[in-house]
Specification:
With 100 residues, this protein is of the alpha/beta class. The chain contains two helices and five strands, in the order βββαβαβ.
Length: 100
């Protein structure tokens, strides 16, 4: 099964920081939405993957191929991509992670 995690980032002038939106959807129509605030993109990516894995396990899914869509102005290193891919594909719930 395929799924997508969409991460959005919006600057909130009233609080002087960025807020993040995290949404993921699976090919079978399951959708979840989360939000939060952080100045560190890696924290947001890890939170998105952790919540996704939790929901996938609860739902009885395994072998899910995830695509993580990052906002245009957010980049993460190839080394970090490899690190989180290894971390979150270890139990087979997520089969692969692709970053766009």
């Amino acid at each position: 099964m395929n799924g997508t995690i969409n991460i959005t980032r919006t600057y909130s002038a009233s609080v002087g920081r960025y807020t993040w939106g995290i949404g993921y959807s699976l090919a079978n129509g399951m959708e979840k939405r989360y939000g939060g605030s952080s100045e560190i993109p890696m924290e947001v990516v890890e939170y998105a993957l952790k919540t996704s894995v939790f929901d996938l396990i609860i739902g009885g899914y395994s072998g899910v191929n995830l695509t993580v869509e990052l906002p245009e102005d957010v980049t993460i290193t190839d080394a970090y991509k490899a690190q989180v891919t290894t971390k979150f594909t270890g139990d087979g719930t997520i089969a692969s992670i692709t970053f766009n």
